[in-house]
Amino acid sequence: MSEQDQPILRVEALSKRYGDRLAVDQVSFDLWPGEVLAVVGESGSGKTTLLNCASARLLPDSGRVDFLTRHEGVVDVYRLSEAARRLLARTDWGYVHQNPADGLRMDVSAGANVGERLMALGERHYGRIRQEATQWLSRVEMQEDRIDESPATFSGGMRQRLQIARNLVTRPRLVFMDEPTSGLDVSVQAKLLDLLRTLTHQLHLASVIVTHDLAVARLLAHRMMVMKDGRVVEQGLTDQVLDDPQHPYTQLLVSSVLQP
Amino acid sequence: MSSTLSGTMGGAMSVTAAVQVRDLGKTFTLHNQGGAELAVLHGVSLEVRRGECVALDGPSGAGKSTLLKCIYGNYRTTQGSLIVGEGENAIDLATASARQQMAMRRTTVGYVSQFLRAIPRVSALDIVAEPLMEDANGDPDKLVAARRAAETLLLRLRIPVRLWSVPPATFSGGEQQRINIARGLIRPRPVLLLDEPTASLDADNRITVTAMINEAREQGAAIIGIFHDQRVRDSVATRVVNMADFK
Amino acid sequence: MNADVSRAPDSSDSGYNFAYLDERTKRMIRRAILKAVAIPGYQVPFGSREMPLPYGWGTGGIQVTASIIGRDDVLKVIDQGADDTVNAVNIRRFFTRTTGIATTERTVEATVIQTRHRIPETPLQDHQIIVYQVPIPEPLAKLEPREAETKMMHGLAEYGLMHVKLYEDIARYGHISTTYDYPVMVDGRYLMAPSPIPKFDNPKMHMNPALQLFGAGREKRIYAVPPYTKVESLAFDDHPFEVQRWEQHCALCGAKDSFLDEVITDNDGGRMFICSDTDYCGQRRENLAAVPANVAEAKSA
Prior knowledge:
The structure holds 3 protein chains of 3 kinds.
Chain A: E1 9-18, E2 21-31, E3 36-40, H1 47-54, E4 62-68, E5 74-76, H2 82-91, E6 93-96, H3 100-103, H4 110-120, H5 126-139, H6 156-168, E7 174-178, H7 186-202, E8 206-211, H8 214-220, E9 223-228, E10 231-237, H9 238-243, H10 248-255
Parallel strand pairs in A: 3-8, 3-9, 6-7, 7-8
Antiparallel strand pairs in A: 1-2, 1-4, 4-5, 9-10
Chain B: E1 19-30, E2 36-48, E3 53-57, H1 64-72, E4 79-84, E5 91-92, H2 98-107, E6 109-112, H3 124-136, H4 140-156, H5 173-185, E7 191-195, H6 203-218, E8 222-226, H7 230-236, E9 239-242
Parallel strand pairs in B: 3-8, 3-9, 6-7, 7-8
Antiparallel strand pairs in B: 1-2, 1-4, 4-5
Helix pairs in contact in B: 3-4, 3-5
Chain C: H1 23-38, E1 44-45, H2 59-68, E2 74-79, H3 86-99, E3 102-103, E4 112-116, E5 129-133, H4 147-155, H5 160-173, E6 184-186, E7 190-192, H6 202-205, E8 211-216, E9 221-225, E10 231-233, E11 260-264, E12 271-275, H7 278-288, H8 295-300
Parallel strand pairs in C: 2-3, 2-4, 4-5, 5-8
Antiparallel strand pairs in C: 1-9, 6-7, 6-10, 8-9, 11-12
């Protein structure tokens, strides 16, 4: 089968319990190459827990995550060795944190942040690392001459751009994003959304984006899933779910927004 | 119902019409208003073949736009079947997967809504070219060709060249509508859904758009549209269907 | 390491076991050392004891030395290359009082050398053991504060982060500015902090005939480089590893190949460069049978 005929990520019956509370309850979904899936819901709906379980950052209690690798076919992510899983996470996957400080090394320069994944893969040529980092800074619309500055001196929007560049430098095919634009000013948010939209498009990135902001889902996602109390209550094409919501909770969500 | 349609589950099937609507019903259930139900469509059946242009008629509130949105998959159907496409590409929207619906929008059905949903910071030219650029898969030659095709359309629709590189959010209603039409028509598709495509156009542009719709139909598109303007309707429609007939 | 240690000799303080530590503790530490030797560069945890010296004064090195030293051993202790600085003098006196064994300032005479910040210039022999005092055994500690994560990185040999540090050096200063505790790869597997020795000494660790032991008292870690083990200093292809070089020669012995300390000689800005390794410098002067070089002459050279 060609790549286009198989999902790049297949999540099956994932569950995660915190004490008595079921944070994620039997959630399944398929994600296809180049497809952007938004997971929406309010705080506590389990969307971030789902993201972390699907991205192998948090061990689920049950369920399974299959990933279509570049060269070795489909792998069961949780049956890979720790080494292989970590390699996957820093090559073919990306993870964009809500708070850029969680995804960046705040005490090293922008260039080193972008170059780290390359060095982790064995790149040992300073000049090439720097060249690659420069290109990525410009790709995320940052000034190249800030390559030696510390992210601690950057604005929130710039830090988020840097985090994105740091993730994309190894050309991943799947990027997980946790509320990538919340916590930013509205104007900064709009620019970042546009950047994400362009990059996912140009790089044919598959992405799972957790957001509580329906406008983010509208702009970025092909499909969306609505979560409540750990379950998926509704899913479909993004415009379908937003324009013709079926579930009472989705209707409430959509009607609560001024113009999604 | 044609025998080939029985028991279809969104898979490949053989269909002669580009759009086949059978006993379609659409009811909105408003859960947050005591579960009130709004039955907008009921018992709608319609077949449209390639080369046909069907104008939907009826008073406002009769469900014309709702029907177009159902055919585009923007609204989900409550009842009946809704088969779009021909041959292997035909799918029943009532049962099709999200992935099939996305493929349908990419290859089979174009939709020109009344209002342009502008995307921040994307130029008018790129908005128009986007459907072709998606097909290009990064091939630089195809990307150039997509932009060139967009330029041709924008010229024809009299969008001043100085606006091509500007995001259309600030454009006038008429300009936005022409951008929308150009985007909807740039990639020839077997099915075209038009919701008031000429509502805010001046006479010259109305004539141009009318001509473009006819060209698309002559090239084999099955067109379903809402045209309030009598002159436009008379010059593009091969058939008029009154929504009231379904009630 | 090679003698009967069941009783303290006459010349030492009574009331303490030989070399201060009790025999059980020594066995525990020896086990850690054996494991460390078996897995070159790997940091072995051990039950570090309270010592009659504060942390930072070489408690890790002292415990290692105390566990391996025997009555026939000859001990040399250096601090910054010198045998006569406070730290070296105190540790040497500590072992004299608790073991009564012979000590020396001569590198060639020593069987065990405990060191802080230097490797002697005189090449070590295969019957010698060098014990390093280590403040921070984890080379990744400054870059990755989570210990669970650094352990994972060692386990999986994920060492890209160390190059991030070197990258930062070049980006900031145009060259790798790390001059001491310069990270090394041991036997192609484990990333290791060589303790705060100058990078000048890094090449001496490579394929050294002596056994090299490292003790970190506060951090409770022991690690080792067995004799004749590959020790490679990290670098970039286009920024290779380089050791410090001086334009001056040693003002006392004239050495061109040793690590030099800059010494302020008066309140008028007078200074000179002399060997950091006092034994090496002294031997050279003896062997050359020459009068100490004229300081002023060396300064102008």
